[in-house]
Design brief:
With 123 residues, the protein is α/β, with parallel strands linked by helices. It contains three helices and five strands. It has one domain. Strand 2, helix 2 and strand 3 form a beta-alpha-beta unit. Helix 1 packs across helix 3.
């Protein structure tokens, strides 16, 4: 399952993801980090999109912290969208005053309610 956090300050989104990352055994990728995959930006984006697509239907979880609106185009169909801003299409909206632990629990609740919840996979 791909869980995309967007629309907020990078530090806050990272903190919220970290509260449940270990429980889900999920990796975390931020913003343009994927550009290290290739010297060619288009190829790097394609490789990262492929990584996200493999997680979209799989059993492992991955967090992507999108720092800019255009990065949302990298998301595969079915990605869980968690928005930290008052606007934007999403599956879950996190209010600005919600503590990270509570935001993490809200994400877990949403994951539990999805029909085909991916299970954390052992390392």
């Amino acid at each position: 399952m791909v869980i995309c956090l967007f629309g907020g300050e990078a530090q806050r989104m990272r903190c919220c993801a970290d509260t449940i990352r270990m429980e889900l055994l999920a990796g975390v990728h931020c913003g343009d980090e994927y550009r290290i995959l290739s010297d060619d930006p288009a190829q790097a984006a394609a490789m990262f999109r492929g990584l996200l697509e493999r997680h979209a239907g799989g059993e492992a979880h991955i967090f992507y912290l999108a720092e800019r609106a255009e990065q949302l185009a990298l998301l595969p169909e079915g990605a869980l969208r968690v928005c930290f801003a008052p606007e934007g299409e999403c599956d879950l909206r996190i209010p600005p005053d919600m503590p990270p632990e509570q935001a993490g629990q809200a994400m877990l609740t949403l994951l539990d309610s999805r029909p085909h919840r991916a299970q954390a996979c052992p390392i």
